Amino acid sequence: MSGEEFAGTMPVPAGQRFDEAALERYLRLHVPAFVPPLTVEQFRGGQSNPTFLLSGGDGARLVLRKQPSGALLPSAHAIDREFRVISALHGSAVPVARPLCLCSDASVIGTMFYLMEYAAGRAFWDPTLPGMSAPQRAAIYDEMNRVIVALHTLDYAAAGLADYGKPGNYFARQIARWSRQYRSSETERIEAMERLIAWLPANIPPGDETALVHGDYRLDNMIFAADAPRVQALIDWELSTLGHPLADFSYHVMLWRVTSGEIRGLRDIDHAALGIPTEAQYLASYCRRTGRVGIEPVVWEFCMAYNLFRIASIRQGIMKRVLEGTAASRHARESGERARESAELAWRQVEEHLGG
Predict the structure, then answer these.
(1) What phi, psi does 162 have (nearest 5°)?
(2) 130-133 CB contacts, 8 Å cutoff, 24+ apart
(3) CA nearest 126: which of 227, 3, 217?
(4) What CATH number did the domain enclosing 15 receive?
(5) Are 166 and 304 contained in the same domain?
(6) Which of 14, 41, 276, 280 could form a disulfide with 9 if both were Cys (CB 3.0 to 4.6 A apart)?
(7) Do 331 and 236 fall within a single domain?
(8) Are 138 and 277 in contact (CB under 8 A)?
């Protein structure tokens, strides 16, 4: 499936509608620049927290992100945390959309939500960047590398985020968390998940680091300037926390491990011809910018297996919401049905690289 199917906006589906008149009243009170009447569309992407484009009578645009309707998993869909982190990062070396306000009063539109400025620019869904020259592609990938380094080297305590997560033991805590999330949304037995839930916590590499991590760092969560290879805004901060930077970076680099037939990957492309760095070159750039000597292969491969396990857990949560009728995206069922595929890929990773 082409990622372009997730691009742009659409009319708000019946299951996602809310009281637009109540939202317009809220905007009049809390966003002084807003000019009625209000028009609401939904972004096609964003399966977890529904995201909407709000247009005023003067053509000015805002973005609204809200919690989904229905029963929510513990600690999931933390809209208030998203708003906190972009508020802390606005004006820093990490580009984010300008935050406007958080509404914790669920009576307004049915769930908590926040508003931010609309970041105009280019969104890329295909990581092979069709239609670009090799130097243009190289510049986009170098910018992605630069921004994740800016994130991982940020002084998060100075930004007011010292308590944004628990420093230390990140892998142990996250494996436990995603195991719980998986159990609470389990719809069938997946043998590979059972093996991963047992193997991963017993095989965490030694050593620890803490940085601010995005949790879903990928090309289609970035808005690039219209006329330059510059990230205007890194979006979708729902999974951000204090964590191990290599967990975050390896999630991003999984792109190089999958083919273009799965999750829009880079495995079988001619990197040199396209101007896209290889996995080894991209890692080397990250290490150079962060001052790392290198990354031990056993640590790197563990990170890859962990992230595939995490994706399987997330997809299982999507599947549960599909069955309950509360999934935000029309593509949610397809994503949810791939939980088993992700888990089996993760276990193959363990068997092939880590002797599981």
Answers:
(1) -60, -25
(2) 132/275, 133/275
(3) 3
(4) 3.30.200.20
(5) yes
(6) 41
(7) yes
(8) yes
- Shared domain for 347 and 270, answered yes or no, is yes
The answer to whether the peptide bond before residue 37 is cis (omega within 30 degrees of 0) is yes
Question: What's residue 329's pLDDT?
Answer: 63
Per-residue pLDDT tens over the stretch 91-101: 999 999 999 99
Look at the alpha carbons of 86, 91, 92, 93 in this order and tell me if their dihedral is positive or negative: positive
| CB 345, CB 308: distance < 8 Å | yes
Residue 303's domain comprises 134-353
Q: Nearest 10 degrees: CA dihedral of 260, 140, 123, 330?
A: 30
What's the CA gap between 261 and 123, in Å, rounded?
Answer: 20
| 217 belongs to a structural domain | yes
Contacts of 56 (CB under 8 A, 6+ apart): 34, 35, 36, 37, 38, 39, 62
125 assigned to some structural domain:
no
- The amino acid at residue 282 is Y
Residues 143 and 281 occupy one common structural domain: yes
Based on C-alpha coordinates, what's the Rg of the chain?
Answer: 20
Q: Are residues 218 and 297 in the same domain?
A: yes
Question: The domain spanning residue 188 has which CATH number?
Answer: 3.90.1200.10
Say whether both 155 and 103 belong to one domain: no
Q: Is 269 buried (19+), middle (13-18) or exposed (0-12) by CB count in 10 A?
A: middle
Number of domains in the chain: 2
Query: Cα(116)–Cα(8) distance, rounded to whole angstroms?
Result: 17
pTM above 0.85, yes or no: yes
Query: Strands across the sheet with 61-66, in order?
Result: 9-10, 39-43, 51-55, 61-66, 113-117, 99-103
On whether residue 242 sits in a domain, the answer given is yes
Contact by Cβ (8 Å): 286, 145:
yes
Low-confidence ranges of the chain (pLDDT < 70): 1-6, 46-47, 71-77, 260-263, 327-331, 336, 356
Shortest CA distance to 38 belongs to which of 52, 50, 20? 20
Confidence (pLDDT) at 1:
32
- Token representation of residue 54: 């709000």
CA–CA separation, 297 and 286 (whole Å):
15
Rounded to the nearest angstrom, the gap between the alpha carbon of residue 206 and the centroid of all alpha carbons in its chain is 26
- What letter does residue 93 receive in the DSSP assignment? S
Q: 3-state DSSP call for residue 164?
A: coil
